[in-house]
Amino acid sequence: MDTKAYRYLKWADDVVGIVHRDLSVSFEQPDYNPTLSLYTHGSTSWSANDFLDFLSERIMSPERRDIEKASVQMRPFRVRCV
User: Fold this and answer.
1) Do the domain assignments include residue 25?
2) CA–CA separation, 9 and 13 (whole Å)
3) How many domains does the chain have?
4) Domain presence at residue 2
5) pLDDT tens digit string along 23-79?
6) SS (H, E, C) the chain
């Protein structure tokens, strides 16, 4: 696994995960808060497939009627390119 950060997962302005070039993710504090703990289940890493599953659940489709509700729920957790 490439240890150099490719992207970061942030909660507000805090880095909670490092996305590697192979799309695996490392978490320094998987129990950062109760919501993040729900996603990580205490694990310190995700495989590329785990990360892609996480992203696929958050991609909005114009056909969805609950886009506004889902986008409001997503706001605290975002992927930033740094």
Assistant:
1) yes
2) 10
3) 1
4) no
5) 999 998 899 999 999 999 999 999 999 999 888 877 666 665 555 555 555 455 555
6) CCCCCCEEEEECCEEEEEECCCCCEECCCCCCCHHHHHHHCCCCEECHHHHHHHHHCCCCCCCCCCHHHHHHHHCCEEEECC
The pLDDT of residue 2 is 45
pLDDT confidence of 19, banded at 50, 70, 90? very high
Residue 1 lies in a domain: no
Q: In the prediction, which pLDDT does 55 show?
A: 87
- Asked, for residue 18, whether it belongs to a domain, the answer is yes
Q: Which two tokens stand for residue 33?
A: 């808060």
10 phi/psi in degrees, rounded to 5: -125, 145
Query: How far apart, in whole angstroms, are the C-alpha atoms of residue 56 and residue 42?
Result: 21
Full residue range of the structural domain in which residue 31 is found: 7-80
CA gap 70, 58 in Å, rounded: 8
